[in-house]
Design goal:
Helix content of chain B: 25-40%
CATH class of the largest domain in chain B: Alpha Beta
Distance between the termini of chain B: 14 Å
Shape of chain A: globular
Radius of gyration of chain B: 20 Å
Largest interface: A-B, 49 and 60 residues
Structural class of chain B: alpha/beta
Order of helices and strands of chain A: HHEHEEHHH
Oligomer: heterodimer
CATH superfamily of the largest domain in chain B: Medium-chain alcohol dehydrogenases, catalytic domain
Radius of gyration of chain A: 18 Å
Structural class of chain A: alpha+beta
Helix content of chain A: 40-55%
Number of strands of chain B: 18
Number of strands of chain A: 3
Largest sheet of chain B: 7 strands, mixed
Number of helices of chain B: 14
Distance between the termini of chain A: 35 Å
Number of helices of chain A: 6
Number of domains of chain B: 2
Chain lengths: ~160, ~400
């Protein structure tokens, strides 16, 4: 029994995510697919938009996203925001689409995080590989959540 | 290589896993000289920390020798003896730049999981679940250390491996509790827990000028160790009314700063313990906050409570009324190791802090599962078991 119970918090995370997605689909969060996704980069604005270009890997998405930058308050660097030019439809932001990695916002979130890391540190920290050595049903679920997590979250 | 793996709730085993490799230019690979059991490991071994996978290598407090460096590493060379902060910090995000290293923006490779749990993710930590970065742990023959220029510190000559080992996590964690708890000269400080972190919090409070430091536990050898090596007064909560004793020893005021160094599996001898344990086992609360509640009630009006123990989720019967009506400051944090480790190595070298006494047992990697069992059940006077892969 106890063996199974440790999965409860993980499942709760999934439920919370599903609820959030569900409310979006029902119109409870009418801007979910259209919201600016934002990170604060601890670099001055001229470093973030060097020569007017977007930082990598956002530059590769340039034809599909709008980007805006502004100085962050309190000398915290630069707020870097991006959103899809074509807002993601509700079905694209559903839980199945997100679990399948088909929500287009996931790619934008991942690119924002990687751009921030590259600008601040010069690299994107990679996980150890292989992540673990023994596949189990619970482990596969955690593995799926981990694979998606770079494109998920509150960003 | 051999490594200590989490295989399921309360199941540990030593397995063969692939050797670590340099994954980024700022990485190093360290050959483990020594690691140690930590009370926070017991929470993940027991299944209280979500997002563990069978086969995950655990361990996060270690000292070792650099055997490989990435091309962008500047401060370390092969052969350096290093102690490594358990939390990984990039050194350049706003949080690292402001010495809040365990909140680093760039070292948790699974940010979405942490954000779902806490609102925002923590930094990555070695061997502590996929919610907290998914990095491999250090109870192994080798471990990869990302952003090594910021998280690995050369151990000065004259500090032995065992003493240096605890500067990886326990000593800075304890120091942080006293420092960020705002301990000032003349204060009376109470510390819940006489494990390694609690002992180091008490020692930090003394070194920061506290007039009296009173540590609370129930294990006789830990209480004795705290008096002898730390220099704090002690209270055995199984034989003494802690709240009444603290009032008496503080002129009726209560301690100025209360530091909780117990965590989510707190024990007590009252009926609340049974209540908390039942709710935790049924997952109606994730953590048992017994010591936190007691600290909040015992703290003087306008005082500070610092939560050092590891908590994962939600707790029940949190005395918010006492916090508000007594005007308390309640603060907590995971360890900002990089902020303190250089200073602590100096203090260790100067003899101001003693750590080697906490290493009550030394075992090989093969015997690590047995050591964790002993550590968990506090048998044979175990405070910390040191795991040496080279034995």
């Amino acid at each position: 029994m106890k063996k199974a119970l440790w999965m409860v918090p993980v499942a709760a995370v999934g439920v919370a995510a599903a609820r959030k997605a569900g409310s979006a689909a029902r119109g409870g969060e009418d801007r979910a697919g259209d919201r600016w996704l934002t990170v604060t980069v601890n670099r001055p604005e001229e470093d973030v938009r060097q020569d007017g270009k977007l930082p990598e890997p956002l530059e590769r998405l340039a034809d599909r996203i709008d980007v805006r930058t502004q100085p962050a308050p309190g000398d915290r660097g630069t707020e870097l925001a991006a959103r899809l030019k074509e807002p993601a439809p509700p079905e694209a932001t559903s839980v199945p689409a997100r679990l399948a990695g088909q929500d287009p916002r996931q790619e934008v979130r991942r690119a924002l995080r990687e751009a921030k890391a590259l600008l601040e540190t010069g690299e994107v920290m990679l996980p150890d590989t292989p992540p673990t050595t023994r596949p189990t049903p619970g482990g596969r679920l955690v593995g799926l959540l981990s694979r998606r997590s770079g494109g998920e979250g509150v960003l | 290589m051999k490594a200590l793996c989490w295989e399921g709730v309360n199941k540990l085993s030593v397995e063969q896993v692939p050797d670590p490799e340099l994954r980024n230019d700022q990485d190093i690979v360290v050959r483990l000289v020594a690691g140690t059991t930590c009370g926070s490991d017991l929470h993940l071994i027991g299944g209280y920390i979500p997002a563990m996978r069978a086969g995950d290598v655990i361990g996060h407090e270690f000292v070792g020798e650099v055997v490989e460096t990435g091309p962008a590493v500047r401060r370390h060379r092969v052969g350096d003896r290093v102690v490594v902060s358990s939390f990984v910090g990039c050194g350049r995000c706003w949080y690292c730049a402001n010495d809040l290293w365990s909140l680093c923006d760039n070292t948790n490779t699974n940010p979405g999981v942490g954000q779902a749990l806490f609102g925002y993710e923590t930094a990555g930590i070695f061997g502590y679940s996929h919610a907290m970065g998914g990095l491999r742990g250090s109870h192994a023959e080798y471990v990869r250390v990302p952003f090594a220029d910021h998280g690995a510190f050369t151990v000065p000559e004259g500090i032995d491996d065992t003493s240096a080992l605890f500067v990886s996590d326990s000593v800075p964690t304890g120091w942080m509790g006293a420092d960020l708890g705002g301990v000032r000269p003349g204060d009376v400080v109470a510390v819940w827990g006489c494990g390694a972190v609690g002992q180091m919090a008490a020692r930090a409070a003394i070194l920061l000028g506290a007039e009296r430091v009173i540590s609370i536990d129930r294990i006789p050898e830990r209480l004795e160790m705290t008096e002898r090596y730390v220099g704090a007064e002690t209270i055995d909560y199984t034989t003494t009314d802690v709240a009444a004793e603290l009032r008496e020893r503080t002129g009726g005021r209560g301690p100025d700063v209360c530091i909780e160094a117990v965590g989510m599996e707190a024990h007590s001898d009252g009926p609340m313990h049974l209540y908390d344990q039942a709710k935790q086992q049924l997952r109606l609360q994730t953590d048992r906050p017994t010591a936190v509640r007691q600290a909040i009630h015992a703290c003087r009006k306008g005082g500070t409570v610092f939560v050092l123990g590891v908590f994962a989720g939600a707790v029940d019967k949190f005395p918010l009324g006492a916090v508000v009506n007594k005007g308390l400051t309640v603060r907590g944090a995971q360890m900002h190791g990089q902020r303190y480790i250089p200073m602590l190595l100096d203090r260790l070298a100067a003899g101001e802090i003693s750590t080697a006494h906490m290493a009550t047992h030394t075992v090989s990697l093969d015997d690590a599962p047995t050591a964790y069992d002993m550590f968990k059940h506090k048998t044979d006077g175990c405070v910390r078991a040191v795991i040496r892969p080279g034995l």
